[in-house]
Each structure stands twice: as structure tokens, then as C-alpha cells.
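Hello K.,

You asked for the raw outputs rather than the summary table, so here they are, unedited. I folded two proteins back to back in the same session to keep the settings identical. This is the first:
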Amino acid sequence: MSNKFSPNSSHSLRLSDYSTQQEFKARHIGPNPKQQDLMLKELGFTSLQEMAQKILPKTILSDRKPQIGDGVSEFDLIAQLKTMMGKNKVYKSLIGMGYAGTITPAVIQRNVFENPVWYTAYTPYQAEISQGRLEALLNFQTLVRDLTAMEISNSSLLDEGTAAAEAMSMAYSIHKNEQVKSFVVSPGLHPQIIEVLKTRSEPLGLEMILEEPSQYKFQKPIFAAFVQYPNTYGFIEDYRDLTQRVHDHGALLVAGADLLSLTLLTPPGEWGADIVIGNSQRFGVPLGFGGPHAAFLATKEAHKRLMPGRLIGVSVDSKGNSALRLALQTREQHIRREKATSNICTAQVLLANMVSMYAVYHGPEGLRKIAQRTHRLAAIAAEGLKQLGFNVKGKYFFDTILIQPGTAHNTSDLIQTILQEGLKQRLNFRKVDSLTLGIALDETCCAKTVHSIWDAFAPGHGAKLSVDLIDRTLKQILGFSILSEVDLFDPSCF
């Protein structure tokens, strides 16, 4: 008996049957034609087309075959995607608006971000075997509580926009007067947060008044006022008087805050904020195309029952040892839907854990030095731009500066020209309007970044400025140095 392969035999193999395209289709679609026929027969149909015509409404059924071309194999598709990705130009983002470049410590990237023990930990349901993860989330809560000076914090929310929306609903519930359905939002909030508040308030029958709260005359009762600290343009405002006015009218003050800035600024809890929300991304979490990144919500102890998300609490086990548990759960899975303040997808456990580890890695002094260095670089960049004839708006800022052309400039197309020069320096700036640019510095910036900014604003002239000289000048103006131990020329920037 011959075992030779015959191309004409019934057992011959066709190359097309075993192409990567066919293999992918069989692997992912599942039932083969014979199995499909059996299922169709059981259902009383002769073909998939007949079944579709019986099931789909005629209003959405189309006879036209979609013009999507022939399929490709998984291998070929990945190769095409890699080619497309290779065309990307990765520039340094100085756009700000709540997102900042950050340096993820290698130990956190390898052992948390890339470790399935951590990145698959969605919710630590079994507290008895999740003590380590619960401790990391407790650290996150403690970090937020300490920096905001609030009494209590949850263990993360989806992102800053939805955290603001949760704060809106929470403030409305705390206010208790169902007839008061209006709230005031400062135009200084980040644009994406304003849009989320607008979207989430409408179906709830709540009215968003976009007006600077300090200018609001309370002609209509409100249940809350929203401010950003520092605001989206980088300005740092003193909200003590505003908070008192808002409280005098029976409303709550909600503040969106930058965690890194709070290592230097007076925390919202000390000037009377009722709810503080924000984004923790710049604590070691890589930029992910805008997010979402782990948000936080901190408030007063009296409001904890209305706080969304989860709260890790410290308890005692049966043997008297300290133990951690989920002390507060507000999800539809756990309590009655009408009492729930969170849906199933609220937290960012992995990213909250990274933030927690980042804070532990650097410690309080390390975080403060990062903030001081970032602020100092922003101050040097601003002073240099002034020397180049530009106007820097605002007296007090942390990491973000707002720049407009000076009187000596020809403003026609100047902003667009600067944006293009920035791209040549591999920098992305924020275009606020036709006469205004925003620049936000971060942990990844250094003296080289500042020189590149100057060169973008004044090609051929920026290089003449000295970062070191301006730094010394600013120290003389301020009368003290906040940066004696911090290196402006960090080699990680190069």
C-alpha cells in the first residue's frame, strides 16, 4: 500500500484552506458551514440570509453588500498596523488641561503596571486574600486626604470628568432642597469637565450656569458652585471669600484640584471646600491618549454615605489583628439600584495602585521637590518669554502659563506660526484662541525643554537666553530660593 501523497486524491490539501486568513476566520467565528446548516435547520431556515430577513426590521435591512474589500489575515493586519504606527511622531505634550507627562519608576512599571497580579485586580471582593491590594488603595485614599486636607476620600473613580458629575449629583443630594436645580460652573474648569457636567446634568433636569462664581449674584438659588484650582489657564485664585459667600447662600463649593500642586499650595480643605475632585494621572501614570485615568473624590466625614465609589476601611479581625475591608460599597451590584451612587464601572484600581506606589516611592519630600522643580521651570520659561516681548497673563501660577503677543509683535498669524515652530521643536502647545497660547510644564521637562519653548516663540532669539541666568534673576526678585536642591538640568529630559 502506497503512502505517497497524491495531489489528485480526495485527501489532498489546498493551500487556501490553511492560509492564515482562513485559520483566523475559523478560529474566531466558530461554527463551520456544516454546523451552521444544522443550526439553521433546527431554527427552520435554509440560509443565514433568510434568517436575517426574518429577524432584522426592514427599516435597517439592506441588500447592498458593504464595500469593505477582501479580508486580511491576523498576521498581515498586525503588520499593516505596525507600519501605520511607525508613522506616528511622538512629541512632548505641553497642552496641560489636566494631563501631564510623568516619569513612571521602572520598579512600578515592571512589578505593578506589567504584572497580571496587579493589572487583573478589578475589585478585591475577597478581603481575606486581598490585604496587599487593599493596603495600596488605602494608601491612595490617605494620599488624597492628606493633600486635599479633607476628612475622607474614596479609592478612585473613572476619570476627572465623571468625578465632577458624581460630585454634582452628590451635592444635589446633600442640599436636600429638590426645588433648587441650578449650579454654577466656572469657565476656568477644564473644557472636557464642563462638557461632561453639561451632558450629565441635562437628563437629571439640572441647570448648569456657566459663569465665574465670584461674579454670580445669586439671582437664582443654586445647590453648588464649581471651581478649578489651579484653573485650566494656570491661574491660582484665593477662594476663601467665594467659599464663604457660597455657604452663606446654602450651597456647596466643589473644587477640582491638581494633586501635585497641592504639595505647595494651601489645600482646598483649609479654605472650606465641601467636595474636592481631580485626576491623579501625573503621579506616575503614563499618558493614555487622554485617559481615562484614576480620579479621586474627597469630602467631609458627614457626607460619606452619599460619596460614590468604594472606601477601604481599617478594621480588626477575629484575633484582634488589624485588617482591611471594603467599608463602603455604593454599586448597583451590592445595594438597591435607587440607593446606588455608582454603576459597575467606576473605579480605576490598577492606576490608583500605581499612584499609591508612586507616592510611596518618592515620599512627601520627593513629591514636593518634583512640584518645586516643575514650578521653577514654568517661572523661568515665563520670564524668558517676557524678555522676548510676550505678555504672560496671570500673577500666580503653578505649572501652566498663558501667553499672548506683545505690543511689538505683528499678531497676524503669529499664533499659528508659533504652533508650527513648536512642532519643529517636537513640542505641542495649547491653542486657547487666535491670540492666546497655553503651555504646561511637567516632571519630564528640563532646561532643554525651556530653551525649545523660547526658540519656538522667537526663532533664532530664544537660544540667546540663559536658563541659569534667569533662574538667578528670579531668585533675586523673590528674595529666596525654593530650588536649592533640585536640578533644572535633569538628564532624563535628554
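The second followed immediately with the same parameters:
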Amino acid sequence: MNKSIWFSLMLAMSVILGVSNVAQAQETAIVASMTAVNINQADVETLSRELPGIGPSKAQAIVDYRAAQGAFKSVDELLEVKGIGVATLERIRNKLVVE
């Protein structure tokens, strides 16, 4: 894709998304294009592979919490999982969905 088409696309996205500049639109587009991880369905391997800072033991803790407590109602509920703190959650938040 040439630069003028890319710029036009980013400008249009900034208008559609209501963001203040093309750089924000570009970041939003990149984030939206990544595959999100559904924490209510992902297995240990998927969680540890797709989420930075989540290794096998934290991934297992997420799966164990889900098995004991039921489906996550929100991404913020991950804070209840042992080993997941605010900094970790903020680092991976844009990669998570709850469905």
C-alpha cells in the first residue's frame, strides 16, 4: 500500500474513531488488527504464547481461577488471579476480550 493511501486510511479512521490525530488512529488500527485472546476460552498454551509476561504458571492460574469461579465477567477480574497485578493487566489489556 502506498503512503498516500495509508495516510488517507489513517485520516479516515481518525475521523470515524474520533481520535485526535493520525498517530492515534494508526495505533488503534494496529491494536484492532491483532488477534485478541478470549480469557474465557483460551488454554494454558494460548495464554502463555499470546500474552507478554504470562508464562505457563500464570496461564495455569488463569485457567484454574476460571474453572473454580466460572467465566470471567470482565478483563478487570483477572486482578483476582494470584500473580496478576495492575501492571501486568495494563500491559496485556489491549490483547484481551471476554466473550
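The chain has a mean pLDDT of 84.

Happy to rerun anything if the numbers look odd on your end.

Regards,
P.
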